[in-house]
Amino acid sequence: xxxxxxxxxxxxxxxxxxxxxxxxxxxxxxxxxxxxxxxxxxxxxxxxxxxxxxxxxxxxxxxxxxxxxxxxxxxxxxxxxxxxxxxxxxxxxxxxxxxxxxxxxxxxxxxxxxxxxxxxxxxxxxxxxxxxxxxxxxxxxxxxxxxxxx
Length: 150
Known about the structure:
Blueprint: H1 2-21, E1 45-47, H2 50-58, E2 62-68, H3 73-84, E3 93-99, H4 104-109, E4 117-121, E5 127-131, H5 138-147
């Protein structure tokens, strides 16, 4: 009985630690307020919207769709960096945030299988490249645009 109680305590403590550190969580599908993306949208960084993406492509912009999650520390770091440096995003670049946990159809469309994925689009909307590196800064996204298609 003591052994069973000890195993149970270890399991409870382990799950608690996973939940507290964000390693094990479920998406909040009941509230768009908790969706991943910018708190203040700009011309260079905004939440994914199909018509805005098409407008950016039509305008000849370099389009990046970033799939992030509110439970992903690298995703949060990148989002904060993009918001803080929004004025440094070049006029010919549009970065769109998609929520990995909520945007299921979009994930399927671009075959995204893990959070922290950047999709670089060609002017016709086709995928040039997909990057799953743990980018944490605006310059990493811009480097990805420069190297896309090589």
